[in-house]
Design goal:
Elements (H helix, E strand, L loop, with lengths): L2 E4 L7 H12 L4 E3 L6 E5 L3 H11 L9 E3 L6 H4 L5 H10 L4 E6 L13 E5 L4 H10 L3 E5 L13 H8 L5 E4 L9 E4 L6 E4 L9
Parallel strand pairs: 1-8, 2-8, 4-6, 5-9
Antiparallel strand pairs: 2-3, 3-7, 4-7, 5-6, 9-10
């Protein structure tokens, strides 16, 4: 059964962060807070963990639209082809924030994503998420946890999330109530920004 760990967003406890990172490095799955909805995540470099998430979501790994959750823009050059100055300025304006940007993937993508032409980059405005990534040393691959209830769409209460997911993941991080709106998804692969999904992030950044 999953461990339920309380971490405060204002001042994440390093001991608790290290505990979660150890689980990630060992191929475990976590549910953790972002600046939008709670996410299901694992270490980007662990193919077995990625396959577990794909199985939970009922999709094939090579077809999955998972986001790469980064600590800052320094990871971009690892996974994204060189981008032009206006695109970089837009990313700097919007991030950290409730956005997922679809960008052209580089040749350095992890093994499980080698065939992908694009990658979704996310830098949440949430200290817990970013501290986890910084301590791990590479991005967390993440997907939002949808609710089976069509009215709710996303569960916001960490205790209810734990009840539902405790037998599927290794750790549920309680970072307080989540949001019920997912990130705004913007495709930047064709020059002009294209809105794929309007979510929590305002379009005023464009």
């Amino acid at each position: 059964m999953a461990e339920f760990i309380k971490i405060y967003n204002e001042n994440p406890n390093q001991k608790e962060i290290d505990k979660v990172v150890k689980v990630l490095k060992n191929g475990g799955l976590i549910i953790y807070p972002t600046d939008t909805v709670y996410g299901l995540g694992c270490d980007i470099t662990n193919t077995k963990a990625l396959e577990k998430i794909a199985k939970i979501k009922g999709i094939k790994l090579d077809k999955a639209n998972f986001s790469f959750v980064c600590n800052d823009l320094s990871h971009l050059s690892d996974y994204v082809k060189q981008i032009d100055s206006p695109t970089f300025k837009l990313l700097k304006r919007a991030l950290p924030g409730p956005y997922t940007f679809i960008l052209p993937g580089s040749n350095n993508l992890p093994k499980a994503f080698k065939k992908r032409k694009t990658v979704g980059i996310r830098i949440p405005d949430n200290n817990i998420a970013r501290t986890l990534v910084a301590a791990l040393g590479n991005p967390i691959v993440s997907t939002s946890i949808r609710d089976d209830d069509d009215v709710l769409e996303y569960t916001t209460d960490p205790e209810l999330i734990f009840e539902k997911w405790k037998n599927l993941v290794d750790i549920v991080v309680d970072g307080g109530y989540g949001d019920n709106y997912a990130s705004t998804v913007i495709d930047l692969t064709f020059g002009e920004p294209e809105i794929v999904r309007e979510g929590k992030g305002s379009l005023d950044i464009l």
